[in-house]
Amino acid sequence: MANVSFDYENLVEVEGGLKDEDLNNIQPRLEEATGELLQSYPGFLRLPDTREYAEASIRVSDEIKNSSATDFIHVGIGGSALGPIALHRALNHSYYNQLPERLGPRIHFAENTDPATLSAILDVADLESTWVNVVTKSGSTAETMANFLVIRGALVEALGDFGYQHRTVFTTDPEEGYLNQIAAREDLKKLPIPPDVGGRFSVLTPVGLLPAAVTGLDVEALLRGASECVRDIRDQGAKHPAIVGAAMHYLMDTARGRNIRVMMAYADALDRLAAWFVQLWAESLGKDGKGSTPHGAVGTTDQHSQLQLYMEGPQDKVIEIVQVEEPQRDLDIPPAYEDLEGVGYLGGHSMAELLNVECDATRRALTEAGRPNSTIRLGAVNEENLGYLFVALEAQTAVAGSLYGVNAFNQPGVEASKQFTYSRMGRPGY
Ligand code: PA5
């Protein structure tokens, strides 16, 4: 069973926090929004119990591993990259690519169009045994296609005209977009992104499942946790704590002027989970002059960078702490310098204990300073809990969309800059 819980006590307890009447007043709208979610049942809720995507991803992953691949380049941006990166960062060894004994090839993410990063990937990948996975739902994202064309060029140079074809996967819409045309022309392998699942809701499609399987993560456990969350939301409706959180965060923004939502994860492994969430919340809700601004932070690191602002800056933030009960690993702090009072006290404790104590201390300091904060607790950073959390936050975002009165599933605001880019780069018709 997944072990994920949500604690909003300090959104109510702090001075200026939410009152019972705020929560009572919004309850009918929250119930309506939750009813709409369960009625319309958007694609992301269906994914955890759809076997087809896991099976297809595992099949391709087995093929990649059986080919003695040394490198796997995941090409994609936005929703086609952030979920897989979050999973890799959370669940694989921090130095996965350098481990002598890995459960899969080295993994590289070609996300931005920065030539320095792509050149660096090409510097270290062994092109003779590299696979490339091109992930774009639309099949026309300039950044992704440019990265692909460069990698393809490098592979053609290393292997000849057709060598790259057996080691290329296109993860895209089943029918629409240019990748389908290229795949048909060159007989390339494809994995589907379901048409009714948008990029930032797609981590549990082959977008996230293939790289997870390739690096040896437990895809079944990920989906099991996700499925448990869907079941809980169906059973508990507007009482599910993630759904309650939609109302809490919506009210903190619209009724209390806290229009910045900081996700502060007390685990390095979760920094990219915060980045995934930032995109989910920002791109889904930032419309029609509405939406709160999400921001990612890491504890304890950002206690020495941003906490001063959170404690004494403008009262415009909600700090959402992500706390992990069981650390992935721990280290004892050996006793030393016992005569030095500012150092000696650390000996005999452990690093995970210090991290957790600092997390509790930050929450207490924020609360005592009247700074609203909430906590998401994970029993451990594992596949099952992350699967649960992905769905919980996706559902929360979708319900928040209804409360704000915006469509959480589109992103019209990113079109204008795309058009300018196409025009400057000479794309016909722009
Ligand atoms: O969430 C989204 O829909 C976007 O962030 C997309 O994932 C991003 O723009 C990349 O799109 P595509 O997968 O079509 O290349």
CATH superfamily of the largest domain, please? Glucose-6-phosphate isomerase like protein, domain 1
The value of Rg in angstroms is 23 Å
> How many domains is the backbone divided into?
2
Q: What about the largest sheet?
A: 5 strands, mixed
Number of strands: 10
State which percent range the strand residues make up. 5-15%
Q: What is the CA-CA span between the terminal residues?
A: 52 Å
Specify the helix fraction band: 40-55%
Compressed to H and E, one letter per element, the order equals EHHHHEHEHEHEHEHHHEHEHEHHEHH
Mean pLDDT reading: 96
- Which geometry do the CA atoms define? globular
CATH topology of the largest domain: Rossmann fold
Hetero compounds: 5-phosphoarabinonic acid
Strand order of the largest sheet: 1-10-9-7-8
Query: Which segments are poorly predicted (pLDDT under 50) over 5 or more consecutive residues?
Result: none
CATH architectural designation of the largest domain: 3-Layer(aba) Sandwich
| CATH class bucket of the largest domain | Alpha Beta
Q: What is the structural class?
A: alpha/beta
The tally of helices reads 17
Quick recap:
The strands form 2 sheets. This protein has a 5-stranded mixed β-sheet with strand order 1-10-9-7-8, with helices on both faces. Strands 3-2-4-5-6 form a 5-stranded parallel β-sheet, with helices on both faces. The mean pLDDT is 96. Helix 2 packs across helix 16 (383-404) and helix 12 runs parallel beside helix 16.
Description:
Helix 10 (219-236) crosses helix 16. The relative contact order is 0.17. This protein has helices at residues 9-12, 20-40, 43-46, 51-66, 82-91, 115-124, 142-159, 178-186, 206-214, 219-236, 241-254, 271-285, 307-312, 341-344, 351-368, 383-404, 415-425, and strands at 4-7, 71-75, 106-110, 130-135, 168-172, 189-192, 260-265, 293-298, 317-326, 373-380. It folds into two domains: 4-40 and 221-414, Rossmann fold (3-Layer(aba) Sandwich), CATH 3.40.50.10490; 45-220, Rossmann fold (3-Layer(aba) Sandwich), CATH 3.40.50. The protein is of the alpha/beta class and 430 residues long. The strands form two sheets. A five-stranded mixed β-sheet has the order 1-10-9-7-8, with helices on both faces. A five-stranded parallel β-sheet has the order 3-2-4-5-6, sandwiched between helices. 5-phosphoarabinonic acid is lined by residues 77-80, 136-138, 141, 144, 198-200, 283, 411.
